[in-house]
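For reproducibility, we list the full input for the zinc ion complex.
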Amino acid sequence: MLDAIYKTVLMEHAKHKMNHFELKGPGSQQLYYKNPTCGDVMSLFWIVSEDDRLESVSFIGEGCSISMASVSIMTQQIKGKKIDQIAQQRQAMEQMIRIGTWDKKIDIGDAASLEGVHQLRARHNCALMGWQALDKALDSHEKYQWTIKKKNSIFK
Ligand code: ZN
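The corresponding predicted structure, in tokenized form, follows.
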């Protein structure tokens, strides 16, 4: 199902998780999240700067390769980005996993390696786990929520 090259990218991330540590310090926040369908668990850590940029992000977690690789890739994708840019990436990821295609104008980097997960319906939540946690984490950020609503989220 998963293309061989993509599989390599995923396995690399699952084995060597990026930004896998507990972020501490002034302004840092954290959230625990559990994937309802696979038993994957994670804690997300983040700092949002005053100019609505995700200054720093990290996670710790345990779970299947798809979930861990996906969260690892996500932290790379969103670190240092503006909140509204992150919301666009989140929409693209959701479309890629749930529908199988996405707005190619949005650069999702290594996350394109998760495209094949679309065909593995039971693993959709594994691939989107980090983004679902991020939805909760950025719940109070208007720009994030507004961008998502405007594009008619199909989560849930
Ligand atoms: Zn999983």
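The chain has a mean pLDDT of 91. Strands lie at 29-34, 41-48, 54-62. Both points were considered when choosing residues for closer inspection.
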